[in-house]
Design a protein that fits this description.
Helices cover 4% and strands 33% of the residues. It has 195 residues and is mainly beta. It folds into 4 domains: 68 residues, Laminin (Ribbon); 43 residues, Ribbon (Laminin), CATH 2.10.25; 40 residues, Laminin (Ribbon); 30 residues, no CATH class. The strands form 9 sheets. A two-stranded antiparallel sheet has the order 1-2. The protein has a two-stranded parallel sheet with strand order 3-5. β7 and β8 form a beta hairpin. Keywords: Disulfide bond, EGF-like domain, Repeat, Signal. One of its GO terms (molecular function) is calcium ion binding. This is Mucin. InterPro entries: ECM_structural_protein (IPR050751), EGF (IPR000742), EGF-like_Ca-bd_dom (IPR001881), EGF-type_Asp/Asn_hydroxyl_site (IPR000152), EGF_Ca-bd_CS (IPR018097), NOTCH1_EGF-like (IPR049883).
């Protein structure tokens, strides 16, 4: 595009001006600058229309700074943990909260060991798992319906080792004990067989 101005005064004096028009289309606070050019390009630019280049502020990209940079994609900095939501903005990104069973700032989420140092989680045995835990009971006890508390067994397991009678000893934390029918005696060597 060539633009020429011809100015003429009342005494027939005239002057011609062909300005170099530089268009700055930078958006979102981008700063315009004339791109570096060779001398051949400089000659071609003279008396022409030039679209300037843009220096984009942090958070924007594109030829004219019109695109918001996706900080959540992690192209320049590490973004959020895969378990949380990343919210992008022109100035950076914000990570959501770590999910239940995890602790951290959203960029780093670490599994919480619910069992470590916490004796109130389970009545007897606590086993940590990823983002959770489960409770168990010692021998002679069974897990209650709340899946946390243990109670002494009230009856022997069907596959007990007793020769005749099996019962639960309430004085020994629900432990299975063997006994014999009337007329028989418990063998002291194994405490299971009846003679």
């Amino acid at each position: 595009v060539n633009l020429t101005f011809l100015v003429q005064d009342t005494k027939n004096g005239s002057s011609t001006l062909s300005p170099n028009i530089q268009l700055c289309r930078c958006e979102n606070g981008g700063e315009c600058f004339v791109p570096e050019a060779t001398s051949e390009q400089d000659a071609a630019i003279e008396n022409t229309f030039l679209v300037m280049s843009c220096n984009c502020p942090s958070g924007y990209t594109g030829e004219f700074c019109g695109d918001v940079r996706d900080f959540c994609a992690g192209e320049l900095t590490p973004s959020c943990n895969a378990l949380v939501t990343c919210t992008n903005s022109p100035t950076g990104f914000t990570c959501g909260d770590c999910p239940n069973g995890y602790d951290g700032n959203g960029q780093i989420c670490s599994d919480i060991d619910e069992c470590e140092g916490n004796q109130t989680v389970c009545d007897q045995i606590c086993t940590n798992t990823v983002s959770s835990y489960f409770c168990g009971c010692n021998d002679g006890f069974s897990l209650g319906s709340d899946e946390r508390n243990c109670s002494a067994k009230l009856q022997c397991d069907a596959n007990n080792d007793c020769d005749q009678i099996c019962y639960i000893d309430p004085l020994q934390a629900g432990q299975e004990k063997c006994d014999c029918n009337l007329g028989y005696s418990l063998r002291e060597s194994d405490m299971k067989s009846c003679d």
